[in-house]
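WARN retry 2 of 3 for item q-0093 after timeout on previous attempt; input resubmitted unchanged.
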Amino acid sequence: MLSSVDDVLNPAAYGGHVPVLLRETLAALDLRPGAKILDGTFGGGGHTRAILLAAEGVRVIALDRDPAAENRAASLGEAFGQRFQFIAMNFEDLKELKESGFDGILFDFGVSSFQLDSAERGFSFREDAPLDMRMNPEVGSSAAEFLESADEASLVRAVRNYGEEKRWRRVVESILQARGSGRLQRTESLSQLVAEAVGPSRGRNRLHPATRTFQGIRVEINDELKAIEEGLPAAFDRLAPGGILVAISFHSLEDRIVKRFCRRMAGRPEHAGDARTQDQRSVQGTMLSTRPISASEEEIAANPRSRSARLRAIRRLPHNDFNKEIL
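OK item q-0093 returned
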């Protein structure tokens, strides 16, 4: 068992499952003794454990829709007793959570290392496995079922919009032609199909040709962006006055939603086309930084998955201060 914050900050303690931007997360949350924190994306529990160790008497409620996360949470329950509670819930449904008045709320979006490294979950093409990709494998359709039956518009949305694949037409056409052939049933055969459609990667940072398509399919079948759009305002509403909301994103679509939400809560223009006047905006929070916080070169070297991580945070103003502060 890890026994101190220094232990938690030591990558060697995780055996490869390193919580991303951990030091920056703890700094943003500004944890005080007795704080009540919500971890909306428990995953492997690394952030939660660090939070519980960061100050005396901190209490954490953790959510995750992945049934496997509940098993991982058991050890924290044994170690921290009533200071830790796990709830099987998608953060999209956060509005249904009865608890509120949190001093801090954390989201670490996207797929967890545990899910990526579990070949049988079908998130990664590093190993051959059934093509599933569901955050909760007990709910909804698998990626293979989606690819075999979805209409063309849904495939375009997944590959072009969510995967941001430039050669999306070739990929969508290849998927449609492969239906019924068995090539859409497993990670290896799908990655080969996409690679054939896209062609070899170019440029300095060469991603596998199937990376973007796999991302887009995963986002589509798990409705990940809708979950973020629903979860952020519900989380902000559950912050205590002065409470801090921290969100870690891993690709531009996630970060765009977080950025616009933070700017909206801070009374700023959400984007270049936001023509609202200042009196049409409501100032409910203060952004801790106007720019996202990225991983250090040291962290990237130790954990390459942190390269694309972006952290944004906003502090909720006391209700009486709403609209008094124009940032």
